[in-house]
């Protein structure tokens, strides 16, 4: 995986929402799959007020059925 730069996090934010919606799950359901205490964390990632911690990216990608690269818009669905 290539090194993530500033604009790539913005890409990630939009991909999380897009991938979650394509999977047909709510923010609360994704939060539960990631063992988060609240769905608000997912919501904050999606609007860009927070970034997902790097330690959660592998589980986030698995829950969304994609690779970490695809979270950043790289790979089969991204550029």
Notes on the structure:
It is a single chain. The longest helix has 18 residues, at 6-23. With 79 residues, this protein is mainly α. The model has no long low-confidence stretch (mean pLDDT 84). Helix content is 57%, strand content 0%.
Outline the secondary-structure elements.
Blueprint: H1 6-23, H2 27-33, H3 40-47, H4 57-64, H5 68-71
Helix pairs in contact: 2-3
Shape: globular
Query: Which residues form runs of ≥5 with pLDDT under 50?
Result: none
Please state the CA-atom Rg, rounded to the nearest Å: 11 Å
Q: Helix- and strand-based class?
A: mainly alpha
- What percentage of residues falls in helices of 4 or more residues? 55-70%
Give the SSE order as H and E letters.
HHHHH
Largest sheet: none
Q: Roughly how many Å apart are the termini?
A: 14 Å
The oligomeric state is single chain
Q: What is the average per-residue confidence, as pLDDT, rounded to a whole number?
A: 84
């Amino acid at each position: 995986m290539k090194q993530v730069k500033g604009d790539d996090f913005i890409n990630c934010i939009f991909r999380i929402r897009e991938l979650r919606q394509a999977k047909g799950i709510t923010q609360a359901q994704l939060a539960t799959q990631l063992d988060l205490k609240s769905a608000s964390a997912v919501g904050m990632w999606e609007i860009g007020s927070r970034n997902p911690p790097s330690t959660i990216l592998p589980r986030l990608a698995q829950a969304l059925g994609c690779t970490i690269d695809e979270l950043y818009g790289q790979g089969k669905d991204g550029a």
